Structures are given as structure tokens and as C-alpha cells.
Predict the structure.
Amino acid sequence: MIQFNLLPHREALRKFKKDQFNASMVLTLILGGITAFAIYGSLISSIDAQKDNITVLEREIKQYEAQIIEIKDLKTQIDALLARQKAVEDIQADRNTPVRLLSELANNLPQGVALSKLSQRDQVLTLEGTAQTNENLSQFLDNLGKAGGWFSKPELQVSEVQSLSPNGKVPVKAFKFSVKAIFLRAQNASAANGPVSPSTPAKAPSTTLPISAASKSVPADAPKV
């Protein structure tokens, strides 16, 4: 005998599958929410940790900046003290400079050369005078430029022949000259000799001294300035 199943089994199967799908979707959403919340919490914790690190670094940076300012102040004070020390040393070194200058000029002045004017600007000297011959003038330049002396880099600026009539006597020829040289603060045996640069800086005011009798063993017929 043929039997027929008239129950709605197909609708029941579809309903069962639909319920399974809905349950899986709900479970997936719940797991996704939990995962997202866990990731969000981890990110928040990392951000807070980085903020704490940044705060610590900013505090350390401020401390180092304060130390840098103190170091700069100390360096400024050290530079000021060194400048004062150098000024005192320069004053001590230059205390006897005028006497030393005139003494060395007298020692290096050869026969037949007479100085009439001396001017100084910083360490650069300008010497003016007369020489009987070119040989006398050359000897004077050699004396100023010799190694181990107090003068360095002599340079002849002007050398011209002129006729002089000392005490109304017969006119004689003499070489009027102008020489530049550097007067050293201390004896420097290894000073290099060379021409004085025309662009030598001049900061200090110049001083000019007249020299009335600066010749050394000049013969009687030599001109006097």
C-alpha cells in the first residue's frame, strides 16, 4: 500500500538552515566585536604608553636644555676670563715696548742712515729718514729683516734722491726713504721675512714720534735731518 507524507518537512528544513545561518552571523558579529574591542584597547594602551614616553622625554629635554644654558654661561665666563688674562699679559708684555723699540732701532741702524720720523699703528711701524747711499739703506733693511730680531717683514715704500745743504755747505745727494716693518711683541727667531701686506688692518690709533738724532756714526759731511 502506497503511503504519502503530508507534513511540511521542506519548510521545516529551510527554517532550520535559516536559523543556523542567523546564529552563525550573530556569533560572527559577536566575535568581530570582541576582536575589534581588543585591538582598540591595545591601540589605546600603546598610545598611552607613547604619551608617557613623550612626557618623560620632554622632561629630560628640559633638563638638558637647562644644563646647556648653564654650560653656555660658563663658556661665556671662561671666554671673558681668558680675554682679561690675555689683556693683562699684553699689558705686561707691552710695558717696556717703547724703550725696547727705540733701543732696537738704535742697534739696527747702520752708518750713513738717519731717521727723522717714526709712526706706529698696531704693530706696524713706518720709518722715515735719509740714507747716504743705497748700500746703507739696503743694510738697514737687512738688519730689520734678520731672523731672530724684533722686526719682521720690512718693506721699502719710498726711496728718492734729493739734494741737501746742511748748514749752508755744498749740496750733497741723499736718499730719502720710507720703510714699513712689523715690530714683534716678543723675540721670534723663526719669524718669516716677507713684504708687508698693504691691507694690514689698523684698529688702534697711530702714534708719531719725531727723531732728531737717530743716525749712527755718520761722517761729518753726511746730511743731518
